[in-house]
Amino acid sequence: TNMFFSGFPFFEEGSQGGHQRQQKETDTQKLYDILGVPKDATTAQIKKSFMQHAKTHHPDRGGNSEKFKEYQQAYEILSDPNKRELYDQYGLEGVENGGGGGHEDIFDILTGGGNRGVKNKRGMQKMRGVKAELEVTLEESYLGKTAKMPFQRQRNCETCDGKGGSEVKQCTTCKGRGVQVKTIQMGPMIQQFQQECGTCKGEGKIINEKDKCKSCKGNKVYAQKSTLDIPIDKGAYDGQEIIMHGEADEAPGYMAGDLHVIVKTKPHKVYQREGADLIMKKKISLLEALTGFCFKIQTLDNTEVQIATNPGEIIFDGAKKIVKGYGMPFYGDSMSHGNLIVVFEVEFPKTGSLSEQQLKKLAEILPGPKPKQVDISKDDILMLEEFDPHTTNPNEEGGKRGEEDDEEDEKSGQTRAQCAQQ
């Protein structure tokens, strides 16, 4: 049960009935001119015009944000039958006030002094935003693109302009209020509260079956399948949120919500991204590490480049080197780039792959202490063995103590199982 409180709208100072006001000329044409449509344009024509302007002036595509707001405001008002009706009679001020042109008109409506018959309507609320993920490749983030994204959303029926039928009547049960007053007696006390009208489901209006719109079957909305153009700018990053204004669900009396597109970057087989830098791993032989090397890479814009070490430079295992300017474009400044970071893994010769003669030559060439002849048959010589993770002792009391603990746990579990069977 929903509880409601009734009351009168607040008035600004100086809006008493006896105050003299000057009536100003009402502009009911401006919004139509902004969208470039005639005053008798259909909802479909208004929407088509808005979409054309939005593609050109959208801020995410480098358009003028202030200009885009004008188009958006015009569309939000003219695409809604209730707000459009108010605008056609009272202009923007009438829409903002929820009825007639100014305080005098609102006062007339509340006191019955006016003859326009326009109800005081709430300002239009906006539908909740919707989130959707869009997968892109690292190449697409590097180069930028316009991605096609299939999307299904709720839209007002264009056949009936979101009314649900040809003849919409006021609900006789609640007299158009959408709520019913219920009275409950609790001992000596009587409590009154309001709840949603069961006849019209809180809408205040009903439509006879014969008058229902054939397209939406009286639902006022329909599920629209669409393919949206999502701008992926150069340098777009994983988790980035791209807001597509007015591209989510809409409903009668509500502005269309925004679609929040979350960019998800697919893993790349060569590069990993960290900020604006790219990281790649490169395996090299011990010979290459000592004597130098040159190798080719394919960049994200499909260009082949060669990378080489400096003469005399020795690369150790785990070394990191950079190639400046070969990372990702900076987001918002695509003329600047991050760096390419190369992490090297040096592959050593396998045990037994070098002959005794080769080892002697290496000993002559390489710096450092020369190897000594060792008699491995002596008892005081400890020999290194291959590491086996199964021979570790993770328990501070030793591996044997750990095994005893495991045996005790097993016995305890068996005892509990036997107890459960009894």
UniProtKB/TrEMBL annotation:
The keyword RNA-binding does not apply. One of its GO terms (molecular function) is Hsp70 protein binding. It holds the Pfam family DnaJ_CXXCXGXG. PROSITE patterns: DNAJ_2, ZF_CR. Keywords: Metal-binding, Repeat, Zinc, Zinc-finger. Residues 144-225 form the CR-type domain. Residues 30-91 form the J domain. One of its GO terms (biological process) is protein folding. A zinc finger (CR-type) spans 144-225. Residues 383-422 are annotated as: Disordered. The keyword Metal-binding applies. This is Uncharacterized protein.
